[in-house]
Amino acid sequence: MDMHVPGFGHGLDEALLIEWAAGVGDRVERGDVVAVVETDKASTEIVAERDGRVTTHAAAVGTILRSGDVLYQLAAD
Amino acid sequence: MLVARAVDEEAHRLQKQGALDLWPSCQGQEAAQVGSALAVGPAPAVFPSYREHAVALLRGVAPDELFAQWAGRTFCGWDPRRLRFFPYTLVLAAQTLHGVGYSIGQRLQGLEDFVVVYVGDGATSEGDMSEAMNLAAVESASVLFVCQNNGWAISKPAEEQMRTSVAVRARGFGIESVRVAGQDPETVFSACSRAAAHIREERAPYLVEIQVGRIQGHTTSDAQEVYRSRDDLTKTRAADPVIAYAARLSDLGVVDAAWLDAVDTEVRELCERLQKEYA
Amino acid sequence: MSPVRSAGLAESINATLADLLEQDPRLLLLGEDIGRLGGVFRVTRGLRERFGEDRVRDSLLAESTIVGQAVGMAMSGLVPVCEIQFDGFTYPAVNQLVTQAARIGGRWNGQVSPSLVVRIPTGGGFRGVEHHSESNEALFARYPNISVACPSTGEDAEQILRYAVTLGSPVVMYEPIRLYWQRNLPARDPGPARTPTAARIVRRGTDLTIATFGAVTHEVLEAAHALSPDVDVEVVDLRWVAPLDMDTVLESVARTGRLLIVHEASKDVGIGAEIAASVAEHGFGSLRGPVRRLAPDRRVYPPADFEKDYLTVGVQEIKDEVLVMTE
């Protein structure tokens, strides 16, 4: 299933993708860090919203993410 | 003290004539004001409340300049910058934060940062007073808080305003403090001299709480007979610091009748000039 | 017209403050968490490292303390630029601003001219919790000697700040939170303002004038662009709500004959009411129809789930209002 870039609060809707913490094929549990991003405010982590296996990265490191865009795909257990 | 008393009494007469709109009396607080002002000397900037008339006169404010705002001519009748006696502030305790901020600002610029802030007991209930004490403490600002506790916030007696003295409260903020009787200017002078030395040495704030009597009402608009007992008023007048100190100096032979007569003449001329200006 | 990508408001203000700190040794910044953290919105990011903790001062968490000590600092010859963390936390500082900062110039018979600036993040639309989405500029607009600026772009914020630190009386500058990091904004006419305090005509038009300010200026522009060419809307970005540049508004209304005022703060006794009254007094003869206001009703800013119902100043509502007025 498609997992989306969340909102970052206070009207922040963009962030720079710094690093994928969960690689394609990795299994994640809800709350695990999937990616590290940098907003205009601070460095922050995007965490898994549910358990599953990461099947696709939809963005490359160094690109600007927008809230609501697809970030990665997850296969539920 | 005698001049301040005479000026204060003239203000009452002029107010009764309708020449002044209002007058907040300092009668009963002269020893506290003169003792504290002489102890710190002319260097510190003074942030008064609005009845520090004796301090004003010592700083060089002319009596007619002092009256100007109470006659509706201006918000400040003197030159605050030159005299380092800043304008009266009528919103209670607002000046306490200005004083601390000024001291910090002066220090940042390498200038004289010793500041004296006057406040009454009533104003210590304001949040700004607590905020100013805390700010002065954490910034270690060179601020002398002088609280003249005249026992009344208009009609609210001090014992209904606070559960500890203001001096004890200051210590809760980490500010050294002392509480002294305000009848004798020499007692006040000594306490404030020690406080000033502490501020200069430690570059930290200090609070002196001075217990004074309030002889007149809060202002000329106040009717203190409504809420104060005859007995209380009699006792307060009997403890008049001006009369007591003049008597003491006479007894000690420091001043004689001729000196007192000369002061009498001086204040009579002063009052005549004030009448000419305002009546 | 396609959107234009520009520096965010936070970035512009940061650069301006850095330059002002560089230029004027009397200038200092004062506010909650503005130093180590760089401010909750990072507007002052990096400034403490660059200019030191004496000049970029992490204040106590007390708004009266911030403005009260700034008044004292101004008396000592400094130029304090304060930050209040959120609009809704301004109220403890109101006494110091209104009865003190605004009045000491007069009380000192001109011997003190406090160039004291208070920056306040403002406005809603970002799912803020209680007190974090307010717009209280009209409160200060009522008081003499307080100037109130509401920039809608980083460029205007820069011009306003540079002017404010030289003015000699307090300036409150409202910074729309939702513009801090917004980089894609509707295009606007690039014409410069006549003076630092003048309004700016950000879109020329012939059919109707919209006077507005702050974040919602962008919704107004978007609506105006969308309505073109059927309705040709002129947009006046007031930039300051006190003093108001009524000359620019009246000149615009004289050309278009219609006036709509749009703002995010509630309507009653608001900036829009003042503008409408002034136009009724001085520009009635140019009007082809009644002046109207589009602004939220007078009620408490609601919990985030309901803010869309409260903020009745979206692009669609603005378009609808214009169409009603020009049909």
Automatic annotation (TrEMBL), chain B:
Co-factor(s): thiamine diphosphate
Enzyme Commission number: 1.2.4.4
Catalysis: reaction(s): N(6)-[(R)-lipoyl]-L-lysyl-[protein] + 3-methyl-2-oxobutanoate + H(+) = N(6)-[(R)-S(8)-2-methylpropanoyldihydrolipoyl]-L-lysyl-[protein] + CO2
The Dehydrogenase E1 component domain, residue ranges: 1-274
UniProt cross-references to Pfam families, sorted A to Z: E1_dh
Keywords of this entry: Oxidoreductase, Thiamine pyrophosphate
Its job: The branched-chain alpha-keto dehydrogenase complex catalyzes the overall conversion of alpha-keto acids to acyl-CoA and CO(2). It contains multiple copies of three enzymatic components: branched-chain alpha-keto acid decarboxylase (E1), lipoamide acyltransferase (E2) and lipoamide dehydrogenase (E3).
PANTHER family in UniProt: 2-OXOISOVALERATE DEHYDROGENASE SUBUNIT ALPHA, MITOCHONDRIAL
Family to which the UniProt record says this protein belongs: Belongs to the BCKDHA family.
Protein name (database record): 2-oxoisovalerate dehydrogenase subunit alpha
Natural source organism: Streptomyces tauricus
